[in-house]
Amino acid sequence: MAAKEINYWLMKSEPDAYSIKDLRNEEETLWDGIRNYQARNFMRSMKIRDQAFFYHSNTKPPGIVGLMEIIETNLIDPFQFDEKSKYYDKKSTKENPRWDCVKTKYICEFKNMITLKELSEIYAPEELTLVRKGNRLSIMPVKKSIAIDLIKKLQQN
DNA sequence: GCCAACGTTGGC
DNA sequence: GCCAACGTTGGC
Protein backbone atom coordinates (compact mmCIF):
# COMPACT_ATOMS: atom_id res chain seq x y z
CA MET A 1 0.00 0.00 0.00
CA ALA A 2 1.37 3.39 -0.97
CA ALA A 3 2.08 5.76 1.88
CA LYS A 4 -0.23 8.69 2.05
CA GLU A 5 1.22 11.97 0.92
CA ILE A 6 1.86 14.26 3.84
CA ASN A 7 2.05 18.04 3.69
CA TYR A 8 4.15 20.43 5.73
CA TRP A 9 3.18 23.65 7.47
CA LEU A 10 4.61 26.32 9.66
CA MET A 11 2.77 27.56 12.73
CA LYS A 12 3.80 30.61 14.72
CA SER A 13 3.42 31.16 18.41
CA GLU A 14 4.83 33.67 20.84
CA PRO A 15 6.59 31.53 23.45
CA ASP A 16 5.22 33.76 26.23
CA ALA A 17 1.76 32.58 25.17
CA TYR A 18 2.67 29.01 24.20
CA SER A 19 6.14 27.58 23.61
CA ILE A 20 7.64 24.38 22.26
CA LYS A 21 8.46 23.45 25.87
CA ASP A 22 4.79 23.79 26.81
CA LEU A 23 3.93 21.44 23.98
CA ARG A 24 6.64 18.99 25.02
CA ASN A 25 5.20 18.92 28.54
CA GLU A 26 1.59 18.57 27.44
CA GLU A 27 2.36 16.35 24.43
CA GLU A 28 -0.76 17.57 22.61
CA THR A 29 -2.50 20.89 22.23
CA LEU A 30 -5.45 22.54 20.56
CA TRP A 31 -4.15 25.23 18.21
CA ASP A 32 -6.84 27.76 19.02
CA GLY A 33 -7.17 31.52 18.73
CA ILE A 34 -6.61 31.81 14.99
CA ARG A 35 -8.62 34.85 13.85
CA ASN A 36 -7.33 35.38 10.35
CA TYR A 37 -9.19 33.89 7.41
CA GLN A 38 -6.15 32.99 5.37
CA ALA A 39 -4.55 31.19 8.30
CA ARG A 40 -7.86 29.48 9.07
CA ASN A 41 -8.20 28.30 5.50
CA PHE A 42 -4.74 26.77 5.61
CA MET A 43 -5.75 24.97 8.80
CA ARG A 44 -8.86 23.69 7.07
CA SER A 45 -6.76 22.07 4.37
CA MET A 46 -4.58 20.23 6.89
CA LYS A 47 -4.83 16.46 6.99
CA ILE A 48 -4.18 14.08 9.84
CA ARG A 49 -0.49 13.05 9.83
CA ASP A 50 0.65 16.28 8.22
CA GLN A 51 3.59 17.85 10.00
CA ALA A 52 4.16 21.43 11.10
CA PHE A 53 7.22 23.41 12.10
CA PHE A 54 6.83 25.20 15.40
CA TYR A 55 8.03 28.79 15.03
CA HIS A 56 8.74 31.15 17.92
CA SER A 57 7.77 34.69 16.99
CA ASN A 58 8.55 37.94 18.76
CA THR A 59 11.70 36.48 20.27
CA LYS A 60 15.34 37.40 19.91
CA PRO A 61 15.95 35.85 17.54
CA PRO A 62 12.77 34.39 16.06
CA GLY A 63 12.99 31.02 14.34
CA ILE A 64 11.98 27.39 13.90
CA VAL A 65 12.36 25.47 17.15
CA GLY A 66 10.58 22.17 16.69
CA LEU A 67 8.31 19.84 14.81
CA MET A 68 4.80 18.57 15.47
CA GLU A 69 2.19 16.36 13.90
CA ILE A 70 -1.42 17.18 13.07
CA ILE A 71 -3.52 14.58 14.88
CA GLU A 72 -7.06 16.02 14.60
CA THR A 73 -8.61 18.38 12.10
CA ASN A 74 -11.79 20.41 11.58
CA LEU A 75 -12.32 21.09 15.27
CA ILE A 76 -14.43 24.03 16.38
CA ASP A 77 -12.51 26.67 18.30
CA PRO A 78 -14.40 26.84 21.62
CA PHE A 79 -13.17 30.35 22.51
CA GLN A 80 -15.23 32.02 19.80
CA PHE A 81 -18.30 31.44 22.01
CA ASP A 82 -16.63 32.46 25.27
CA GLU A 83 -17.56 36.05 26.04
CA LYS A 84 -14.72 36.36 28.51
CA SER A 85 -12.08 35.25 26.03
CA LYS A 86 -10.13 37.68 23.94
CA TYR A 87 -10.91 35.34 21.07
CA TYR A 88 -14.68 35.81 21.50
CA ASP A 89 -16.47 36.56 18.22
CA LYS A 90 -20.01 37.81 18.66
CA LYS A 91 -20.77 37.23 14.99
CA SER A 92 -20.03 33.52 15.21
CA THR A 93 -22.94 31.15 15.86
CA LYS A 94 -23.05 27.54 17.00
CA GLU A 95 -25.02 26.68 13.88
CA ASN A 96 -22.40 28.28 11.70
CA PRO A 97 -19.09 28.58 13.56
CA ARG A 98 -16.59 30.86 11.96
CA TRP A 99 -13.31 29.67 13.49
CA ASP A 100 -11.68 26.24 13.47
CA CYS A 101 -8.64 24.75 14.99
CA VAL A 102 -6.58 21.58 14.81
CA LYS A 103 -4.95 19.42 17.43
CA THR A 104 -1.20 18.97 17.24
CA LYS A 105 1.19 16.55 18.87
CA TYR A 106 4.80 17.07 19.89
CA ILE A 107 7.38 15.31 17.74
CA CYS A 108 10.64 16.97 18.72
CA GLU A 109 12.40 20.10 19.78
CA PHE A 110 15.51 20.93 17.76
CA LYS A 111 18.67 21.34 19.74
CA ASN A 112 19.52 24.48 17.81
CA MET A 113 16.85 26.61 16.22
CA ILE A 114 17.08 27.87 12.66
CA THR A 115 16.65 31.61 12.87
CA LEU A 116 14.60 33.70 10.51
CA LYS A 117 17.81 35.43 9.47
CA GLU A 118 19.40 32.13 8.47
CA LEU A 119 16.27 31.09 6.61
CA SER A 120 16.16 34.34 4.68
CA GLU A 121 19.78 33.84 3.66
CA ILE A 122 19.04 30.36 2.31
CA TYR A 123 15.58 30.75 0.77
CA ALA A 124 13.90 33.30 -1.46
CA PRO A 125 10.46 34.67 -0.48
CA GLU A 126 8.92 32.79 -3.42
CA GLU A 127 10.23 29.50 -2.05
CA LEU A 128 9.41 30.09 1.60
CA THR A 129 6.67 32.62 2.32
CA LEU A 130 7.91 32.93 5.91
CA VAL A 131 10.85 35.03 4.77
CA ARG A 132 8.71 37.46 2.80
CA LYS A 133 9.17 40.92 4.20
CA GLY A 134 6.34 41.96 6.50
CA ASN A 135 4.79 38.50 6.48
CA ARG A 136 2.17 38.41 9.24
CA LEU A 137 0.58 35.04 8.50
CA SER A 138 0.57 32.86 11.59
CA ILE A 139 0.01 29.65 9.62
CA MET A 140 1.40 28.90 6.19
CA PRO A 141 2.36 25.98 3.99
CA VAL A 142 5.97 24.87 3.51
CA LYS A 143 7.00 23.22 0.26
CA LYS A 144 7.81 19.56 0.71
CA SER A 145 11.32 19.78 -0.71
CA ILE A 146 12.16 22.64 1.64
CA ALA A 147 10.55 20.90 4.60
CA ILE A 148 12.64 17.78 4.07
CA ASP A 149 15.74 19.92 3.67
CA LEU A 150 14.95 21.75 6.91
CA ILE A 151 14.35 18.61 8.90
CA LYS A 152 17.69 17.26 7.72
CA LYS A 153 19.46 20.46 8.75
CA LEU A 154 17.74 20.62 12.11
CA GLN A 155 18.61 17.04 12.95
CA GLN A 156 22.27 17.62 12.12
CA ASN A 157 22.49 20.60 14.45
C1' DG B 1 9.84 52.91 19.12
C1' DC B 2 9.52 52.53 14.16
C1' DC B 3 7.74 50.73 10.20
C1' DA B 4 6.14 47.40 6.47
C1' DA B 5 2.41 44.86 5.02
C1' DC B 6 -1.89 43.69 5.29
C1' DG B 7 -6.74 43.12 7.23
C1' DT B 8 -10.96 45.48 8.80
C1' DT B 9 -14.35 48.99 9.17
C1' DG B 10 -17.34 52.41 7.77
C1' DG B 11 -18.73 56.50 5.03
C1' DC B 12 -20.25 57.54 0.65
C1' DG C 1 -17.67 48.94 -4.86
C1' DC C 2 -14.11 52.37 -3.54
C1' DC C 3 -11.05 54.18 -0.41
C1' DA C 4 -9.32 56.44 3.76
C1' DA C 5 -8.48 55.67 8.43
C1' DC C 6 -7.31 52.68 11.72
C1' DG C 7 -5.69 48.27 13.92
C1' DT C 8 -2.59 44.24 14.19
C1' DT C 9 1.49 41.37 13.60
C1' DG C 10 5.98 40.98 14.12
C1' DG C 11 10.83 42.05 12.60
C1' DC C 12 14.39 45.11 13.65
* Largest sheet features: 6 strands, mixed
Q: Do you know the CATH architecture?
A: Roll
Unreliable segments of 5+ consecutive residues:
none
* CATH fold naming: ph1033 like fold
Got a strand count?
6
- Which percent bin holds the helix content? 10-25%
Structure write-up:
By secondary structure, the protein is of the alpha+beta class. It has a single domain (8-150), classed as ph1033 like domains (ph1033 like fold), CATH 3.10.590.10. 22% of the residues lie in helices and 31% in strands. It has 4 helices and 6 strands, in the order βαβαβββαβα. It has helices at residues 20-26, 37-44, 116-122, 144-156; strands at 8-13, 28-30, 51-56, 63-76, 100-115, 139-142. A 6-stranded mixed sheet has the order 2-5-4-3-1-6. β3 (51-56) and β4 (63-76) form a beta hairpin. The radius of gyration is 16 Å and the shape is globular. The protein binds a DNA duplex (12 and 12 nucleotides) through loops.
Which short descriptors sum up this protein?
single chain, about 160 residues, alpha+beta, ph1033 like fold, 6-stranded mixed β-sheet, 6 strands, globular, DNA-binding
In short:
This protein is of the alpha+beta class and about 160 residues long.
Secondary-structure map with pairings?
Elements: E1 8-13, H1 20-26, E2 28-30, H2 37-44, E3 51-56, E4 63-76, E5 100-115, H3 116-122, E6 139-142, H4 144-156
Parallel strand pairs: 1-3
Antiparallel strand pairs: 1-6, 2-5, 3-4, 4-5
The chain binds a DNA duplex (12 and 12 nucleotides) through loops.
